[in-house]
C-alpha cells in the first residue's frame, strides 16, 4: 500500500460518497455543493493519471462556471426549500427497476473487462503539449467545426434575449 | 467537402447581412440566392467525387460515399425549395430574419456532418449542430407563449437525450477502444461481446429515437411542432428529421451491422409502437397542424423500416423516403401557412376559393397517404421492400399496411373539407402567381418521384 494506493482509495471514497450525497440530500443547495466536491475528487483522479490540464479544466469549467450557474438557477427560482412534488409509487418502482437493471449491465461489463489490474504507470497522453498536438492535427475538424455549434448557440442567446423593437402579441394558433 | 465550408461561410454572411440590410425582403432574397449557390456547390461535390472508392477526409473524421453526397444534395435542394416556398412567412415570424436564415445554414452544416461522419465525435457534433438551432427556431416567436413553451420543452428534453447519447457513445467507446466507426466493425463481434457495448447501443437507439420522434420518446413532438412557428415546424418535421434518420441508418448499418441480431428486435418493437401511436392519435386531432405533427411520428415509423433492414436496398429506401416525405410535407405546410384557421374547418370550401392551393394540397396529401403515382407510394414501397428482402418480420409489414390504411382516413379529411364541404376559408396572406408556380413545381416533383423514383436513387 503505497501513497498512490492510499490517494486512489481516498479519492474514490470521496467521489462515490459525494455522488451519493448529491442524490440523497433533500436540499438542492446541498446537492450542488456535494457535486462540486465530487468534481474535485475526480480532478484528483486526473492528477493521479498525470493529466494535469484535464484536472484544471475540470475544476475551472465544471466546479467553477457550471456549478455557479446551477446555484444561480436554484436561487433565482427559489428552489432551496423542499418543494419537489412526490412521484407516484409506480413511477418510483419503474425507476428503481430500470436503474437496477442498468447497474447489473455495468457490473457485468466491469467483471468481463479484459484487464482487472490497476495500471499505475502514468502516461504522458494527458499533458498539455500532447493534447494540443492531437487537437490541432488528428482532431482538427471537430475542434474547428464546434465553433459553428457555439456560434449558433450565441445567435440563439441574441435572438431569444434581445428586446424586439415593437411588442407584437400574435394570436396563439 | 466544399459544401461544408460553404454552408458555414454562408451562415456567417447571413448573420452580417442583418447589419447591412434592413429590408426583410432583400435579406430573404439574399438567402434564397445563397441556398441556390449552396445547392450548386453540393452538386459540384457529388460530381467531383471519385465514383469507385469512398474518400476519407480530415484524418478519417469524414467518409464521403456517393450515397451520402447524394443525400446532401437532396437535403440542400429540399431546403432551397423550403426557403422559396416559405420565405414570406419566415420574414414575418420575428424581427431577426437574418439570424433565422443563418441558423438554417448552420443546420445544413450539421446535416452534412451527419451524412458523412466516420467518427463518433463527428456524429455527436453533427447532432448538436442540427439540434441547437432547432431549439432556437422553435422559440423564435417569443411573444407567443406556446412558442416559448415549445422551445423550452424541446431544449430540456433534447439536452437530456443528448446526455443519453453521450453515455451510449462512452460505453461503446469503452468496449471498442475507438471512436472510429470502422473500428467498431472489427472490434465488436457477436461471440465475444462486452455487455457494455450492448448497453451503449441501447442508449444510442434511445437517443436517436428521441431525435427522430419514435415511439417511447415521441412525447415532445406534438407540443413542439404545434407550438413552434409554422414555417419552422415545416423545417423541423422534414429536413431535420430526415437527416437524423440518415445518421441513424448510417451508424447502425455501417458500425453495428454484424451485431444486427442484437438490436433488430428492439427496432422492430419501436417501429410497431411508433406506427400505432402516430396513426391512431392522428385520427383524433382537430387541428391540421397537430395532425401533421402526429403524422410525422407515423411517417417516422415507416422510415424506421429502413433502419430495420440491414441491406443495400434500405439506403435507397431512406433516400427516396426522405425526399418524398420532405417535399410533400413542406408543400402541405406551405398551403397551411396561407390559411388563418388551422383546424379542419378552416379548409372548408378551399377548392372554390383557391383552386390551385386546394389541388396542390390534395396532391401532397395523396403522397403522404401513399397513393400510387405519387412519391409517397414509391417511398413506402421501397422501405417495405428492403424489409421483405431481409426475409423476417412479416408481421410488421402487414401491421404497417394496416396502419397506412388508417392514415388514409385522417389525411383524406383534409381533402373532404376542401372539396366536399361548403365554407369561406380565411386566407392569411394573398396567394401570388409566384406561389402558385412554386406549388405547381412542388406537385410536379411529388408526381415525378412517384412515376420515376429511380431519378433519386
Q: What would you say this structure looks like, in words?
A:
Chain A is extended and about 65 Å long. Chain A is an all-alpha fold and 173 residues long. Chain A has helices at residues 3-24, 28-48, 52-76, 89-111, 128-136, 140-161. Helices cover 71% and strands 0% of the residues of chain A. In chain B, helix 6 packs across helix 9 and helix 11 packs parallel to helix 17 (394-420). Chain B has one domain. By secondary structure, chain B is mainly alpha-helical. Helices cover 77% and strands 1% of the residues of chain B.
Please tag this protein with its features:
heterodimer; A: 173 residues; mainly alpha; Four Helix Bundle (Hemerythrin (Met), subunit A); 2 domains; 6 helices; 71% helix; extended; B: 457 residues; two-stranded antiparallel ribbon
Radius of gyration of chain B: 21 Å
User: Which sequence of SSEs, written as H and E, runs from N to C of chain B?
Assistant: HHEEHHHHHHHHHHHHHHHH
Between the first and last Cα atoms of chain A, what is the distance in angstroms?
A: 69 Å
Helix content of chain A: over 70%
Largest interface: A-B, 35 and 50 residues
What is the helix tally of chain A?
Answer: 6
Which regions of chain B contain 5 or more consecutive residues with pLDDT less than 50? none
C-alpha geometry of chain A:
extended
Derived from helix and strand composition plus strand pairing, the structural class of chain B reads mainly alpha
**Which series of helices and strands of chain A comes N to C?**
HHHHHH
- Broad CATH class of the largest domain in chain A: Mainly Alpha
- The Cα radius of gyration of chain A reads 22 Å
Proportion of beta-strand residues of chain A? under 5%
What percent of residues of chain B adopt helix (DSSP H or I)?
A: over 70%
**Domains of chain A (count):** 2
CATH architectural group of the largest domain in chain A: Up-down Bundle
Overall geometric form of chain B? globular
Supply the number of helical segments of chain B: 18
Amino acid at each position: 500500500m503505497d501513497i498512490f494506493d492510499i490517494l486512489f482509495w481516498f479519492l474514490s471514497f470521496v467521489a462515490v460518497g459525494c455522488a451519493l450525497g448529491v442524490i440523497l440530500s433533500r436540499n438542492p443547495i446541498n446537492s450542488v455543493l456535494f457535486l462540486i466536491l465530487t468534481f474535485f475528487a475526480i480532478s484528483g483522479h486526473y492528477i493521479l493519471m498525470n493529466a494535469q490540464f484535464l484536472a484544471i479544466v475540470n475544476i475551472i469549467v465544471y466546479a467553477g462556471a457550471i456549478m455557479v450557474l446551477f446555484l444561480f438557477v436554484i436561487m433565482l427560482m427559489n428552489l432551496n426549500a423542499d418543494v419537489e412534488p412526490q412521484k407516484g409509487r409506480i413511477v418510483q418502482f419503474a425507476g428503481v427497476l430500470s436503474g437496477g437493471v442498468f447497474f447489473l449491465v455495468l457490473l457485468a461489463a466491469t467483471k468481463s473487462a479484459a484487464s482487472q489490474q490497476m495500471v499505475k504507470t502514468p502516461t504522458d497522453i494527458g499533458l498539455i503539449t500532447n493534447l494540443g498536438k492531437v487537437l490541432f492535427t488528428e482532431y482538427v475538424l471537430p475542434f474547428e467545426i464546434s465553433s459553428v455549434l457555439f456560434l449558433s448557440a450565441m445567435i440563439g442567446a441574441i435572438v431569444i434575449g434581445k428586446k424586439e423593437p415593437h411588442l407584437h402579441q400574435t394570436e396563439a394558433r | 467537402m466544399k459544401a461544408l465550408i460553404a454552408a458555414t461561410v454562408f451562415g456567417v454572411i447571413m448573420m452580417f447581412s442583418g447589419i447591412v440590410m434592413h429590408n426583410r425582403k432583400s435579406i430573404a432574397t439574399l438567402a434564397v440566392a445563397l441556398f441556390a449557390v449552396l445547392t450548386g456547390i453540393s452538386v459540384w461535390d457529388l460530381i467531383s467525387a471519385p465514383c469507385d472508392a469512398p474518400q476519407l477526409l480530415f484524418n478519417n473524421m469524414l467518409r464521403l460515399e456517393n450515397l451520402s453526397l447524394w443525400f446532401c444534395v437532396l437535403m440542400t435542394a429540399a431546403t432551397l425549395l423550403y426557403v422559396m416556398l416559405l420565405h414570406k412567412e419566415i420574414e414575418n415570424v420575428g424581427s431577426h430574419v437574418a439570424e433565422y436564415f443563418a441558423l438554417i445554414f448552420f443546420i445544413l452544416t450539421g446535416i452534412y456532418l451527419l451524412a458523412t461522419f466516420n467518427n463518433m465525435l463527428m456524429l455527436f457534433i453533427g447532432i448538436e449542430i442540427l439540434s441547437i438551432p432547432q431549439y432556437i427556431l422553435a422559440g423564435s416567436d417569443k411573444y407567443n407563449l406556446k412558442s416559448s413553451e415549445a422551445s423550452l420543452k424541446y431544449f430540456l428534453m433534447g439536452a437530456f437525450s443528448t446526455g443519453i447519447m453521450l453515455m451510449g457513445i462512452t460505453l461503446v467507446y469503452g468496449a471498442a477502444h475507438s471512436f472510429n466507426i470502422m473500428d467498431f466493425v472489427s472490434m465488436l463481434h457477436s461471440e465475444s461481446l462486452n455487455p457494455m457495448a450492448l448497453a451503449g447501443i441501447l442508449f444510442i437507439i434511445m437517443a436517436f429515437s428521441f431525435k427522430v420522434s419514435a415511439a417511447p420518446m415521441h412525447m415532445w413532438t406534438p407540443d413542439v411542432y404545434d407550438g413552434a412557428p409554422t414555417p419552422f415546424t415545416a423545417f423541423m418535421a422534414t429536413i431535420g428529421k430526415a437527416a437524423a434518420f440518415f445518421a441513424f441508418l448510417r451508424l447502425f448499418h455501417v458500425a453495428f451491422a454484424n451485431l444486427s441480431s442484437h438490436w433488430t428486435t428492439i427496432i422492430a418493437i419501436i417501429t410497431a409502437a411508433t406506427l400505432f401511436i402516430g396513426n391512431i392519435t392522428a385520427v383524433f386531432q382537430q387541428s391540421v397542424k397537430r395532425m401533421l405533427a402526429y403524422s410525422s411520428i407515423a411517417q417516422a415509423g415507416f422510415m424506421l423500416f429502413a433502419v430495420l433492414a440491414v441491406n443495400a436496398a434500405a439506403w435507397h429506401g431512406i433516400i427516396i423516403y426522405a425526399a418524398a416525405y420532405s417535399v410533400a410535407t413542406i408543400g402541405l405546410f406551405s398551403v397551411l401557412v396561407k390559411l388563418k384557421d388551422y383546424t379542419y374547418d378552416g379548409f372548408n370550401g378551399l377548392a372554390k376559393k383557391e383552386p390551385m392551393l386546394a389541388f396542390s394540397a390534395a396532391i401532397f396529401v395523396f403522397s403522404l397517404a401513399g397513393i400510387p403515382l405519387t412519391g409517397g407510394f414509391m417511398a413506402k414501397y421501397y422501405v417495405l421492400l428492403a424489409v421483405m428482402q431481409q426475409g423476417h418480420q412479416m408481421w410488421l409489414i402487414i401491421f404497417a399496411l394496416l396502419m397506412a390504411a388508417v392514415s388514409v382516413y385522417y389525411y383524406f379529411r383534409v381533402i373532404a373539407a376542401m372539396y366536399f364541404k361548403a365554407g369561406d376559408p380565411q386566407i392569411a396572406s394573398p396567394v401570388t402567381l409566384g406561389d402558385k408556380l412554386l406549388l405547381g413545381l412542388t406537385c410536379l416533383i411529388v408526381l415525378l418521384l412517384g412515376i420515376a423514383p429511380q431519378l433519386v436513387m
